[in-house]
Design a protein that fits this description.
This protein is of the alpha+beta class and 312 residues long. It has helices at residues 102-111, 114-119, 139-152, 159-180, 191-211, 218-224, 229-240, 244-262, 267-273, 279-290, 294-311, and strands at residues 21-27, 36-43, 47-53, 55-60, 63-68, 71-75, 80-85, 91-97, 135-136.
Length: 312
């Protein structure tokens, strides 16, 4: 990201909420350093936290949101949070911050008739609030985010193009979030039940992403969703098409693959850090998932990275 592209890219924190802006950048890895804290008790505007490389933790009170590459997190206006990450691997973030009212206006424009908008163009918009859960980056958000990233890397961008890109992102966020409210419920449920099931399963998924490196129990995850273990297991499987146990294993393997490619940490250290307790079991599962051993995966991933660098 082109740092210093005033005033839209990496502006002073005090300016956030008074303009449409992007915060983020690439933070190279540094071995043997304590976790880096980029923000502490920051009360920000509506923003989308996108991780392009590595893993970042956003903490709101006692709630830890662990966001891996390929996932995102929406934080609402007025939510106070801290941001930390482990410097052992390279981390890259891309976080759009909305000017106050932009998303509210987009929602009003999408949900209100043209007749009403003509008669009352500056009517009061409701204060939007989104559920703050870790989720895969939605395909509908990917296109406006890519456009915004392109503008952020250009040396000179007119204000109109920048604001148009944020309007497109705000509209995509409003449309996408409408589906988030019931994304994990079956068609046989009532609307209110749809919403409640989704809310509870998202709480459980947040716990899994935050604590996958620990020894998790089914009743512990079910409790986070305020469900009985059997009911939770059935709803989770229907929503995500995998059991909770398989979801945890797949997440651990994906994190291990990323760390193997991005760091020089020993295989055993990575195995333990992501939550596996046996190197043999980890190696077997890794080979089954990726078709090769962890050590071979590291060589292949780094070779492919060097090739991409040369081609670029």
């Amino acid at each position: 990201m082109a740092v210093g592209q005033a005033p839209h890219v990496n502006p002073p924190a005090a300016a956030l909420g008074t303009l449409n802006a992007v915060m983020g950048g690439l933070y190279p890895s540094h071995r043997n350093r304590a976790p880096i804290e980029q923000a502490r008790n920051f009360e920000g505007p509506l923003s989308i936290k996108v991780v392009l490389q590595g893993q970042v933790v956003w903490t709101l009170g006692k709630q830890r949101h662990v966001v891996d590459a390929g996932f995102c997190l929406v934080l609402n206006r007025g939510e106070t949070y801290s941001l930390t990450f482990d410097p052992a691997e390279t981390v890259e973030t891309f976080c759009p911050f909305f000017d106050h009212g932009v998303a509210d206006d987009a929602a009003r424009s999408l949900m209100t008739s043209d007749e009403i908008l003509l008669d009352d163009p500056n009517g009061t918009s409701r204060n939007l609030s989104f559920d703050s859960h870790v989720r895969p980056l939605d395909s509908e958000l990917a296109a406006p985010l890519a456009r915004l990233s392109q503008l952020a890397h250009e040396p000179e961008v007119c204000n109109l193009a920048w604001d148009e890109a944020f309007l497109a992102l705000a509209s995509a966020l409003v449309r996408t979030a409408k589906g988030w409210r019931t994304e994990h419920a079956g068609v046989c449920h009532r609307s209110s039940t749809h919403t409640e099931i989704t809310r509870r399963l998202n709480r459980a998924r947040d716990l899994i992403h935050a604590e996958a490196h620990r020894r998790l129990r089914l009743d512990q995850i079910a409790a986070a969703a305020s469900l009985s273990p059997h009911h939770f297991h059935r709803l989770f499987g229907a929503a995500f098409r995998v059991t909770p146990g398989r979801y945890v294993t797949d997440l651990r393997l994906a994190r291990a693959a990323r760390l193997l490619a991005a760091t020089d940490a020993p295989v055993t250290e990575i195995c333990l850090s992501v939550g596996f307790e046996s190197l043999g079991s980890f190696s077997t599962r890794f080979r089954r998932a990726f078709g090769t051993s962890p050590a071979s995966w590291r060589k292949i991933a780094r070779s492919e990275k060097r090739t991409r660098t040369v081609l670029d």
